Structure formats: C-alpha cells, structure tokens
Amino acid sequence: MTIVRTGVLVAATLLTGLMAGLFFAYSCSVMPGLAATDDRSFVQTMRWINRRILNGWFLTAFLGSMVLLVAAVALHFRNGPVLAWTGAALVLYGATLVITMRWNVPLNDQLDRAGPADDPAEVRGRFEAPWVRWNLARTITSVVAFGCLIGALVGSD
Fold first, then answer.
1. What domain range includes position 58?
2. Above 80 in pLDDT, residue 1?
3. 102 DSSP assignment
4. CA–CA separation, 21 and 17 (whole Å)
5. For 123, which DSSP code?
C-alpha cells in the first residue's frame, strides 16, 4: 500500500508541477512577449494558443492533477502531516481550476467570438489586463499547491 500511496503522491506532484510551470511560463514569458505586439497580432496569436492548448497532454495534466490530488488525500487520510499538505494542495489546486473556469476560459471564449469587423484594440483591451491578472492568481495558487505537495513528499512514508 505504501508504494501506491507514494506513487499517487508523486504523480499528483508531477502533474501539479507541470500545470504550475505552464501558468508561470505564461506569466513571465508568453504574455510579456505578446504585450510587445500590435493589437491584431495579439488577438490572433492568443486565439491560436487558446485553440491549440485544448489537447490530450494539457487536459491530462489539468484535470489529472485534481483526480490524483483527491486520491492522494484519500490514501493519506490517516497520516496527519501528509494529509495536511495534500489537503492544502487540493484546496489550492481547486482554486486554480475555479479561477480558470470562472475567469480565464470565459475571457478566452469572448476573444474567440470577436469577429473580423471588431476593432482589435477594443477586443484586446477587454481581454488582456483581466486575463493576465487571473493568470497570475492561478499561477500563485498552483505554485503554492506544488510546494505543498513537495512538503507532503518530504513528510511521507
């Protein structure tokens, strides 16, 4: 049973770390890089990124993290210190999912619905600042969740 508990915890840590890294990369490179582009390029590039990110690799890490976190909490239910770390990670990664689904995804959808007749500067103006702000929020929640899982690994069997 120890091997299963540890394996699930390691897998949850790996997938959560991948997601934290993805959101971090947007915060420190993708969005600052796109900030330097013209409005039309910004809108078109974000549209293509938002469409292309919906793939099996992303969805496995994005949703798999939550599934493995729930499993890790359940498997470590009798181990107080590890349970505290995994429980905190579950809450934080849950916040990451809520932020993504409540704010980032609707902004992505709004950007995608903008038509060719819409002014790219106006479309960008409605999208960029709130998207960057909410991406920073989910970067923080996912990075802290990843840190909690490292704490859980250090304190595990």
1. 2-155
2. no
3. I
4. 6
5. H
Cβ within 8 Å of residue 94, ≥6 positions away? 66
**CA dist 9 → 31, 106, 156 (Å):** 31, 31, 9
User: Rounded to an integer, what distance in angstroms lies between the CA atom of residue 150 and that of residue 146?
Assistant: 6
**How many domains in the chain?**
1
Confidence of residue 75 (pLDDT cuts 50, 70, 90): very high
| Overall pTM > 0.85 | yes
Which is nearest to 112 in space by CA: 54, 48, 47? 47
pLDDT at 76 over 80: yes
Residue whose C-alpha is closest to residue 72's, from 138, 141, 7 = 7
Burial of 148 per CB tally in 10 Å (0-12, 13-18, 19+) = buried
| pLDDT the model gives residue 74 | 98
Higher pLDDT, 149 or 156: 149
Q: How confident is the model at residue 116 (pLDDT cuts 50, 70, 90)?
A: confident
Provide the sign of the torsion angle of the four alpha carbons 115, 118, 121, 127, taken in this order. negative
Burial class (CB in 10 A: 0-12, 13-18, 19+), 129: exposed
